[in-house]
Amino acid sequence: MRAQERQLAAVRLGMAVVGALLLAFVVPELPGRTALLVVVALIAAWSLLVPWLLGRFPSREVGIVSTVVDMAAVTVAVYVAADAVDMYLFYGLVILATALRFGLGASLWSSLVMSGMYAAVVIVGGTGDDARLDLLPVRVGYLVGFGVVAGLFSRIVIGRATDNARLRQQVAEEEHEREQIREREQLSRLGRDFGASLDRRATLHAVARGAAPLLGGATVVFVVDDAERRLVPEAAAGPDVELVNAWQKHANARQPRFAEGLIGSVAATAAARHATEVATGDPDGMRELGMDWLLAVPILAGGRLLGVLATAGRGDRPLNERIGHLAEAVAERAGPALQNAQLWSDLQDRMARERAAQRIKDDFLSIVSHELRTPLTSIQGYSQLLEGRLRGLSGETKEMAHLRVIRSQVGRMRRLVDDLLDVSRIDRRGGVSIEPIDFDLAEELRETVSRVAREHTDRRIEVAAAGSMPVHADRDRIDQVLTNLIENAIKYSPDGGPITVSAERRGGEVEVRVADTGIGIPAEHRENVFERFYQADDDAGRRRFGGLGLGLYISRAIVDAHGGRIWVAANSDAPTGSVFGFRIPRVAMPLAPAEIAPTGEPPPFVLRRHDG
């Protein structure tokens, strides 16, 4: 309605100008000419005042006052120019304006009011033989009829105008909705593009390239240098190639400091800012680069400032609210992507340090193991030599028992060294290497039990296995697993008790079980016993049994390398004790080529076919 009121004010002003020209040049001898000019001047002044009033008051109130002013002005003109018999026709213009403003009802009301005003002027200002009195009924009827016609006309016009306005509003809303959908799709696509790579530099360039078409002529992504308290330009893009290159060169030569210039203040306050005027000293280079405006928004993630997204333009790309909204939306999506890239970069650095530390540890273990094996071999060899000489000289003596203890401890030391080397290989390769051959598992089981039994003459170890059980596996590694499980059963049976070792076929697999009647393993510890360096503590939290806790860890790696599985459970056939068991395929197959790691690193478990 404000636009309509402004249009009516313009029409009123034009009619006032035309009326003034007619009074000045066409009918200079008209009676009451001076008073009419004053009325015309007042109408023109009011018309000029209407736009100002519309900016401060509701348009409906301004329209009502304008109608009253028009009625008063026409009434004064009719009274002053009594000889101008057609002056009353101006009431029709007032009625039409009222109809256009307020509709049919107001048009009828105004026609009745102005008919009354006209009748009063004619009756008060006329004489008995005045012709206007004779024409008064006709003219009053004309005004009332004109009010009806103007009202009906306004209803049609206003109705169509309302429909058109509604249609225009609907079209505008639909276009706005489509624009919002397009923006959401663009921003969603940008979010996917930002997170497509975990490389930090690639992510920064993706942010600059993705934001450039939506923002100003040039867009630069600055990252935070916490040590220097500066912002470093890492990526730039935009349709204005000249501005992009010049800005990037300027930013590299003069990297913004925190709280310096517009970009630096955004980094210091973590709040978006824009400028259309050059700041004192021009720290952002707006004058030097010919920028008409500059906008900068912070890139945040988890409350931490990661960088600043800055965009600028010249006259061909003016700054508007939409650019500001899009810049904030782009920065909002860039934050998590840059954070993920930074985390990945930190993880890569940490992994590189851990790999270097692992290599140092492996080298250390390898050197130490070789250095330890040399004296251990010498100790074992010389102890055997001394034992042989003593046996030949004096038979069984106390010294020979001491030598056997020495050899036993040397063997234990060699096993510890071998275990440490195995752990190092498992950590480096993700598993152990095996060399499968054909052998009899039942025979190997009996030999292992016989060897362990000779070392523990005070323990009773029973064997339950078929006469023959051929398998294709790594004989030495399976012997290592059997030895670890039996030694483990002996260690955790400090009060004695039988140990049963059994083996049987299970379809295409073989299953080996080692059962003891020792202290057992609490249920909450069973999932952890195959972890390296793990041992169940006693009630006081002390380690009750010796050892490094590596045997079961290595055993699991060996069984896994054969494609089998290992487990532990309570011994259901005895009041206490545990059962350790494992299954392996009767034929251990090598890994398929597709399972080989593409990075050049060895796969988790490497199987090597024995050439024999």
Task: Report what the structure shows.
It is built from 15 helices and 14 strands. By secondary structure, it is an alpha+beta fold. The chain has 3 domains: 2-168, no CATH class; 200-346, Beta-Lactamase; 431-607, Histidine kinase-like ATPase, C-terminal domain (Heat Shock Protein 90), CATH 3.30.565. A hairpin with a 4-residue loop joins strand 1 and strand 2 (230-237). Helix 1 (2-26) packs antiparallel against helix 2 and helix 2 (33-54) runs antiparallel to helix 3. The longest helix has 74 residues, at 321-394. Residues 538-543 and 590-612 have low confidence and may be disordered.
Return the CATH architecture of the largest domain: 2-Layer Sandwich
Summarize model confidence as the mean pLDDT.
82
Supply the number of structural domains: 3
The proportion of strand residues reads: 5-15%
